[in-house]
Design a protein that fits this description.
Blueprint (H helix, E strand, L loop, with lengths): L2 H105 L1
Length: about 110
């Protein structure tokens, strides 16, 4: 092989190596870009998911509070009714007691 042919082959090999390096850098940059885009999408979806989870948790808590409120009100109504009935029974007893005391005071 002549010196010119050897230099030409070396030059072609260098050009091929440079082309391969440029392509590898381009592939690397594309992968990095794709990875960043995927990371942004993952973060975006995570934010959406966390907001939904927060809203679900808030709604669940709100429903529990409303259920507890209804239970407390119902218990309060039942207690008030029981007290009213007891008070009514005590009124009858008090009237009887006052009447007896009055009669006793009048007879003395």
């Amino acid at each position: 092989m002549a010196k010119n042919e050897i230099l030409s082959e070396i030059k072609k090999a260098e050009e091929n190596a440079k082309k391969m390096i440029d392509e590898a850098i381009e592939v690397k940059n594309k992968r990095i870009s794709d990875a960043r885009a995927e990371a942004r999408e993952i973060l975006k979806q995570a934010k959406v998911d966390s907001n939904k989870a927060g809203q679900d948790s808030f709604k669940s808590g709100e429903e529990k509070i409303l259920a507890d409120k209804d239970r407390v009100l119902k218990d309060g109504e039942q207690n008030a009714l029981a007290m009213a009935q007891k008070a009514q029974a005590n009124i009858d007893k008090a009237v009887d007691y006052l009447l007896k005391e009055f009669e006793r005071a009048v007879h003395e």
